[in-house]
Write a structure and sequence with these properties.
With about 290 residues, this protein is mainly beta. It is globular.
């Protein structure tokens, strides 16, 4: 009874109806890895029980269009920069069954051409820069050393290789608009935190201390680092002010918000709204005055 009362109290403090629903799931369906292609179109990875995952675009009026069906992909990172979408796929060794690699893939949204940037790599979590000229990846070598690596998106050549501080595990990197910094999760026995990697120097600065809270997918927006976290037990999108270190909750869903993206004009946020029928694609007005201080 005590738990039920606490959960009901928590639910009463949420605002689940303050969203514009773009996808009405008729069966259990996920719309994840969302990002704005334009102010009116959102990219999403659509997955359900009836079909393999595919890339789709969903307009703000709910119209859905299939873009492309990828291969045996890693779904944790799909990104867009310039005209290209970037992701990674599994690649198995044809002789040694327990050995596998990854290959870094690019798909041009204007020409419809797919190409392999690199294959037989130990690179993970690729993210293409806003201009499309570089790709950042996480490397784990055969001795479990961890690096953040910056590649040329034309030929795959290494531009910069930054050693992880204290050999922390690195996940979900994201570029700054100026392409001089990358924010990423860092993980060790003390928990998860966020760190800024300076690409040109190279230098690493921790901006959110380690904590035993589930947090993921950081990104830059103006003077803030946005990320997903479950501080109150419900996954929502949070904003960390890099200047004051103040923390704000920016979404307030009943069961969870993830896979977020801010529209190019800065007026809306798209995210996956967690429901009993899967992760539903929704949008919401993006207004600083609605944020909740933590």
């Amino acid at each position: 009874d005590d738990l039920a009362a606490r959960w009901q109290s928590q639910l009463n403090q949420t605002n689940p109806d303050n969203v514009n629903i773009l996808t009405q799931n008729q069966s259990y369906t996920h719309y994840t890895n969302n990002f704005y292609l334009t102010d009116q179109k959102i990219f999403s990875l659509k997955k359900d029980y009836h079909d393999i995952g595919k890339f789709v675009s969903v307009s703000t009026n709910g119209k859905e269009e299939k873009l492309f069906t990828p291969g045996y992909y890693f779904s944790e990172m799909i990104s867009k920069g310039g005209d290209e979408i970037c992701w990674s796929e599994y690649q198995y060794d044809p002789r040694w069954g327990y050995r596998s690699f990854t290959k870094i893939m690019l798909y041009n949204t204007k020409t419809g051409i797919k190409r392999t940037l690199l294959k037989k790599t130990r690179y993970f979590s690729p993210v293409i820069s806003p201009s499309g000229s570089k790709v950042a990846v996480v490397e784990v070598d055969e001795f479990s050393n961890r690096f953040l690596v910056v590649l040329d998106s034309k030929n795959g050549e290494i531009i910069q290789r930054i050693k992880s501080p204290d050999n922390d595990f690195i996940a979900h990197p994201s570029w700054s608009p100026e392409e001089d910094k990358i924010v990423a999760e860092v993980l060790n026995s003390n928990g998860k935190g966020l760190a800024l990697f300076s690409v040109d120097e190279p230098r690493v600065r921790r901006v959110l201390p380690y904590q035993h809270i589930h947090l993921q997918y950081p990104s830059f927006w103006k003077k803030y680092i946005l990320f997903e976290a479950a501080y109150n037990g419900i996954m929502n999108v949070y904003a960390l002010d890099l200047q004051t270190k103040s923390l704000f909750q920016t979404t307030n869903t009943a069961f969870g918000a993830s896979d977020y993206s801010i529209s190019p004009d800065g007026k809306n946020i798209a995210f996956a709204n967690h429901t009993a029928m899967g992760k539903q694609l929704v949008t919401q007005k993006w207004d600083r005055k609605d944020w909740i201080p933590i």
